[in-house]
Every structure is written in C-alpha cells, then in structure tokens.
Amino acid sequence: MPTFKYKALKDDGSAYEDTAQAPSKEVLYQRLKKKDESLVTAEIAGQAGDMARWRRTINSYLSGVSQKDKIMFARNIGAMIDAGLPMSRALDVINRQTNNIALQEVVASIQDTIEAGGSLSAGLQKHQDVFSSLFVQMVRAGEESGNLPEAFDTIATQIKRSYTLKKKIRGAMMYPAIILVAMILVGIAMMIYVVPTLSSTFKEMNVDLPASTQLVITISDFLQNYTIVSLAGIAGAFAGLWGIAQTSRGKRAFEWLLLSMPLVGPLVKQTNAARTARTLSSLLSSGVNVVHALEITEGVVQNSYYEEVLAEAQKAVKHGEPLAQVFQDHEDLYPPFVGEMAAVGEETGKTASMLKRVAEFYEEEVKQKTDDMSTIVEPFLMIVIGVVVGFFAISMISPMYSLTGKI
Question: Which CATH fold topology does 62-160 show?
Fold first, then answer.
C-alpha cells in the first residue's frame, strides 16, 4: 500500500502537512472528509512517487497551463460555486482533479490568497502569465455583481471560441506549409543526389544542353559543392525573417502584408472582427464599463492596426462619441456589419447582445472561409508542384533524346 505525503485543511481553515498510507488518493480524501478535513494535495512518498512527480512536472512545465486546462478550470469552478460549494472547497476539488503540476501550483497559490483574506480575482491576478487580463476582469466583475457562475461560464465560452478559431486557422495553414517544406526538401535531395549522376553522363557523351538543363545543373553543382553553406543560408534567411518579424516595424509590415493578401486578408479581418466583438460582448455583459472593456480588448486582438483602432475608440467613448462611429470610420479593417450592429446596439441599449451576434456571425464565416481555403489551396499547390516537376523533368529528359539520336 503506497504512502502519501499530503497537505490538508482542517475545519477551522488551518493547513497542515502529514503522511498516511492509503490504497489511493480518493480513499485518502474520503478518510479526511469523515474528519471534516479537506485534502489539498497528495503525492506518493518515496522513490516511486518522486519518479512519477518528476515525469508529471516535466510534462506540465513543458506544456504549461493549456487553453483546455483553463476551460476546465472555468467550467468546473463555476459549476461548483453555482452548486453552493465554498470557494476554498471548489479550488480544492480542482486541485485534486487535475494532473497538471503547473495548474496545481497556481490553484494552491490562489487558495493561499483567499485564506489570507484576498479575493479570487486578486489570486488570479498574481498569475498574469496564466490568466489574461480579460479572464481576471470578468471574474472581478462577477464578484462585484454577485454572479460568479455566469461569469465563469462566459469565460469558458470565450476561451473555447477563441481556441477553436485559432485551431481552425492553424489547421488550414498547416497543410500547405507541410507540402511546401516537403517539396523544398525533395528538390534539394534531387539536386544533390540525382542531377549529378545525369550531369556526368551528359558530359561524358558531350551532349549539347539546353539553357534550362544548364540552369538545373548549375544549381545542383552549387548545392553539392556548398551543401553546408546552402543549408546555413536557408536557415539564416528563415531566422532573419523571423527576427525581423519580432521587431515592431517588421511585425507591422508583416501584418500589412497579411491584410493585403487576396485570400488571407479577408480572413484576418473577419477573425479580428469576431475576436473584438466576442471580447467586448463578454466584458460588457459581465458589467465592465465600455472604456475598460475596450482597453482589455486592445490587448487581446494582437494586431497593431486593430490596437490603434481600439485605442482611438477609448478616446472617442471618453469624449461621449458613439463606439459604432469608430468602427464605421475604419471599414477598411472592420466590415460594415460590425459598425451597423454596434450602432443598433447603442440605440437599443443592447450593445453586448448585438456584438455577440456579430461574433457568432464572423466565427461561422471564418470557419467557412478556412474550409474554402483548403479547397482552393490544394489544387493550387498541385499546379505549382506540377509546374516544378514538369520543368525539372523536361530539363533532364530533353538531353536524353539528343543522346539517343547520337547513338
């Protein structure tokens, strides 16, 4: 029977640590529960426990607190608070439920804050690397309004929608990226290993080579003679582009390029429209004032052009101007539907619900566009691959016909 090293809370709220033998963590939890005590953490003591802890710790810190972990945290704690469980007990259950060491440490820290008399939002705010400003502010609004379960439900929905949107876009981009990389690697392999063999044959037979074949052989000779330099150059070019993209000017240039591209531009605009509308709707429905909601949303969009629009919107709202007017003045970034729905919302006093409809509309549009993009990109890639392979084949086969004629 394993020995557990555990931390528990007594019925007066004081914490203590001890060891005990039990068949499982659940049995230990039930035993402590009978004594009106709450289990906070429990780990198998000794070498086996150390190894298990070590493996879970490495895995947890490599992955961190994922979006799925945050969704689970928000949904479960909201449900438990709604069921009437005290906050400390709800956090205790979350801590025992997750196997993520990083999240367990965060939850334990939040428990310490609450036991010291602090609020849940204050505990969350100490971990801004895990919980975004949006998450914290919505919890704070829920605390002030006395409606934490609804706030957590909204947070879980917000994170899930955002996560699904990112995953969908990433999935649409992944296939062409893999095909492109594979095509480059195969091309390099052909140039290094296949072309030199044919090139030596052509030289031995003194075949007149067309310009296209000479170009292929020249590239092949360079890659063969300077393989390391060529690979280092390619890696350096990618690293240089990545470095430039990390600078403010480079990032802005990259964002402008994405917004200007035929297929990608509309997708970027609709994604940011959905993200802006979803975030503002969630915050406004939770009771956060418009200016503060815009400030938080500015940090969510992650695009300098949209950040500038939202910063402008904050100033406009402070001066008593309608929010919808700002969206309408920037229809090059926000589709007209956003401004019109925001205007209707402000006129009827239902801005949050109108923006929620905007978010749902554009989230569905993004989903449809990513599906369409996959359908369009696949044949386009096949055409590109066909042209490259055709050029290579013709370049290397045409001298063979000359060779056959000489024979």
Answer: Receptor-associated Protein (1.20.81)
